[in-house]
């Protein structure tokens, strides 16, 4: 068993190989013990998709189905996201999808009971940051779509509020690289919404902003 590191020393950095391509990073991430989340998760869930993608979508963490299958966004939220991307004019097959945290964090009342998602802490997100930085450096997307508050905090800091900036194009330095980012809600929030159709249309509208940013068309801001 790996020694338990103090929480302020959690980091994946020692596990990230220098000069690795994405397949090598994925293999290395499978053995990451940079924070305690690996102990309960089934496996590491690394990013997937087009390695030359123009757009990278960053979510929070794997869910139950992702943890079992070892691939990001394969559960209900992922299926909804693919539908919303296609409706917005972004081909899901040409995107790269990943999460700020690569292990499933959950609570479970008893063995064999349903595993309930639990949001990762800021320290756990920070610990996993070197994997996301390595993915960004290799994929070099033209645009990052932030899916939800946790991903936003992982990339932009703890003051990030998705409701304040969703559907806008931000320009920030992320892990030493100038990036353009479009924040929106996580698709799982759409599935939990009281008015699911309205929430879904809001997600599509935000993704259309991302699609227009990729084509270079200027955004029209309204007060509506």
From TrEMBL:
InterPro entries: UDG_Type-4/5 (IPR051536), Ura-DNA_glyco_family4 (IPR005273), Uracil-DNA_glycosylase-like (IPR005122), Uracil-DNA_glycosylase-like_sf (IPR036895). Pfam families: UDG (PF03167). One of its GO terms (molecular function) is deaminated base DNA N-glycosylase activity. Residues 46-208 form the Uracil-DNA glycosylase-like domain. Gene3D superfamilies: Uracil-DNA glycosylase-like domain. Signal peptide: none annotated. One of its GO terms (biological process) is DNA repair. Keywords: 4Fe-4S, DNA damage, DNA repair, Hydrolase, Iron, Iron-sulfur, Metal-binding, Nucleotidyltransferase, Transferase. Belongs to the uracil-DNA glycosylase (UDG) superfamily. Type 4 (UDGa) family. This is Type-4 uracil-DNA glycosylase. It comes from Streptomyces echinatus.
